[in-house]
Write a structure and sequence with these properties.
With 347 residues, the chain is of the alpha+beta class. Helix content is 43%, strand content 31%.
C-alpha cells in the first residue's frame, strides 16, 4: 500500500521527465549547429556600410551572412540560372576600395537595372566562387582583357543575395526557429508540470467535473487507502478510474464514463506472430477520451466488467449502435448544426 501513496503525482512527474528528453536533444542539436555554422548571422544579420566592410575578416571570423548598404552597382550583363530559372543578376561595385561581384535577386534589381545608385540587401559572403570565376573569365573574353589581370583586380570574395534569402535559407531559418521555440517552450512547460503536477494536462482535464486540485487529492487518497481493483498500471477506486502508465496518466470519475471498449493488436515481425496486446478505450463526458495501450486481455476484461457494474449507464463494446449513441450524448455535431443554421439564415 505504501507504493500507492501519491502514485498519481509520482507518475505525472515520471511521465513528463521522460518527455523532457526530446526537446533537450533538439535544443542541444540546434546549439551545436549554431556553433558550427553561422546560424546567428543568418537569422540576425548585422548591418554594414561599404566603408565598414572587410569581406576577408568577416569570412574568416565565420560571419558569412550580413546586411549590406551598397552604392553604385553596375550590371555586368550576366545572370545566374538554375533549371532554366533566372536565380540572380551579377553586378559589380566598390566596397572599401575593392571591386566586388554582387549577385542580386531578380526582384531587388528589377530584372537587371543597368545602374543601381543605392540598395540594402541581406547577403552571403562566398569565397572563390566557381560561378564568379566563370563570370570573370567570360567577361574578360568579351572585353578582350587578360584573364589573370581581371581575376587579380576583382576580389576573391563575392556577395550573394539569393543564397541568403532563397527558399533553402528561409526554410532552414523557419525550421530552426520553430524547433528552437518548441524545445524551449516544451522544457518550460514540462518543468512546470514536474514541479507542480496539479497544473499538468491529466489533472486539468478533470476541470470538467470539478476543481482539479480537489479531484487529484481525493483520487490520491482513495488510491492510497483502498483501491477496488488494480492492474499493473490501471486502478479503480470508489469514485475514479486511474491510469498511471508510461504512455500517459489519466483520472476520470466513474460516473462520467459513457462508453468503454477494447481493441486488439497483433504484433508481428516478417511472418512471425509474437503476441497480441489489448488497448482499452474510454469515452467520458465533456469529450474526455482515454486510451490505455498494450495491456493483457484479462486486465482489460476485469476493468470493463467492474466499470460496467459500478455504472450501469456505461455502454460496453464497440458497435455502430454504441458509436451513434455516444455521438448523440456528446452532441458532437452541435457546432456543425449551429454553423449551417447561421449560414442558411444568411443565405
Amino acid at each position: 500500500m505504501d507504493s500507492l501513496e501519491h502514485l498519481i503525482t509520482r507518475s505525472i512527474k515520471t511521465y513528463y521527465k521522460s518527455k523532457l528528453y526530446a526537446p533537450i536533444i533538439f535544443l542541444v542539436i540546434l546549439l551545436v549547429l549554431g556553433i558550427i555554422f553561422p546560424v546567428k548571422e543568418l537569422i540576425l544579420p548585422k548591418m554594414y556600410e561599404p566603408e565598414q566592410v572587410s569581406l576577408y575578416d568577416m569570412y574568416n571570423s565565420k560571419e558569412n551572412f550580413a546586411r549590406f548598404n551598397l552604392h553604385n552597382l553596375y550590371f555586368t550583363g550576366y545572370t545566374n540560372k538554375w533549371l532554366d530559372r533566372t536565380r540572380g543578376y551579377y553586378y559589380y561595385t566598390m566596397i572599401n576600395s575593392e571591386c566586388v561581384v554582387v549577385l542580386l535577386d531578380p526582384e531587388s534589381c528589377e530584372q537587371g537595372t543597368p545602374i543601381i545608385d543605392k540598395i540594402s540587401i541581406k547577403g552571403e559572403i562566398i569565397y572563390d566562387s566557381a560561378a564568379t570565376r566563370t563570370l570573370l573569365t567570360n567577361l574578360a573574353n568579351d572585353l578582350n582583357w587578360n584573364e589573370n589581370g581581371i581575376l587579380s583586380t576583382v576580389s576573391s570574395y563575392s556577395i550573394s543575395e539569393p543564397d541568403a534569402t532563397g527558399a533553402a535559407a528561409e526554410t532552414f531559418e523557419f525550421f530552426y526557429l520553430l524547433l528552437g521555440l518548441y524545445s524551449i517552450v516544451s522544457i518550460i512547460i514540462y518543468g512546470l508540470y514536474i514541479a507542480f503536477p496539479v497544473l499538468s494536462l491529466p489533472v486539468q482535464k478533470t476541470r470538467a467535473y470539478g476543481k482539479p486540485s480537489a479531484i487529484l487529492a481525493e483520487a490520491e487518497e482513495e488510491l492510497a487507502t483502498l483501491p477496488q481493483l488494480a492492474t499493473e498500471d490501471m486502478f479503480i477506486t470508489e469514485h475514479y478510474f486511474i491510469e498511471t502508465s508510461s504512455y500517459g496518466v489519466a483520472i476520470v470519475p466513474i460516473d462520467a464514463i459513457i462508453w468503454i471498449y477494447k481493441y486488439s493488436t497483433m504484433h508481428t515481425f516478417l511472418w512471425h506472430h509474437f503476441s497480441i496486446t489489448y488497448t482499452l478505450y474510454i469515452t467520458a463526458g465533456k469529450r474526455h477520451y482515454i486510451k490505455c495501450p498494450k495491456n493483457i486481455k484479462s486486465d482489460i476484461d476485469g476493468i470493463m466488467d467492474y466499470l460496467s457494474e459500478a455504472n450501469h449507464d456505461i455502454l460496453v463494446g464497440f458497435s455502430e449502435e454504441n458509436r451513434l449513441k455516444v455521438e448523440e450524448i456528446q452532441n458532437d455535431f452541435d457546432i456543425v448544426r449551429k454553423i449551417t443554421g447561421f449560414l442558411s439564415k444568411r443565405v
